[in-house]
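Tutorial handout. Part one gives the primary structure; part two gives the three-dimensional structure as tokens.
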Amino acid sequence: MTAIAVSVETTLESAVLAALGTVVDPELDEPITDLGFVRSVAIDDLGVTVHLRLPTSFCSPNFAYLMASDAVDALRSVDDIRTVRVLLDDHHDSDKINAGLAADAGYRGTFGVEAEDSLEELRLTFQRKAHMAAMERCIETQLRTTSLAVSDIYRLRLRNLPAGRAREALLRRRAAIGLGIGLDLPVFVDEHGVAVPPEEVPMKLRFAKSVRISIDGNGHFCRGLLATRYEDDESLDLHITNTRRTA
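Part two.
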């Protein structure tokens, strides 16, 4: 898949792209900008219009709505943006989702009787999976690069992890599900922040690895589907235009 290539010429464009970069696919745990899900950004005197696209027309409507709604919220936080429009292209529920977003109808107002019991519970489920995968990445790195043994994983603390993207990602995932990020806290914990007992570490580490492999594999798969679906497009790059008149 072609890498996203964007020439950012103004502070406003940079702020818009940064805001969209905070929106993640709930299942893949990656920013929609990195996944290529942002098709275009158009800035004008009225505000900003963003078009999103997904790997297939039948991607989960719940996930599609979550990403589109989160994109609206993220863009509304950008200073000096008047009107925000986010449109989902080429999805079997595009009309319904786009109408709901335009009317600020919310999840239940958009889907009515088709709505799941709780979209936030669904979000939390995937945030917990993302946290599990982030833990496993950090632990596996320690097992591979240090003298840490599986039997000693229960002793591992956040301060023992080297500074870098993996640790920062783990801290973000912990914060997202309400767990502490103090550096003296244990690394390998359950969804409530309770340290995994030593006797349960091997089994739960294997499970965490399976979750991480599933997330990584789905990410590669979706990138391939997106590239195939839009192979006739001139480019898979994100297109950004700014016709806003300066004061």
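Part three, for discussion. The chain has eight helices and four strands. The helical segments are 11-20, 32-35, 61-76, 94-102, 106-111, 119-145, 165-176, 201-229.
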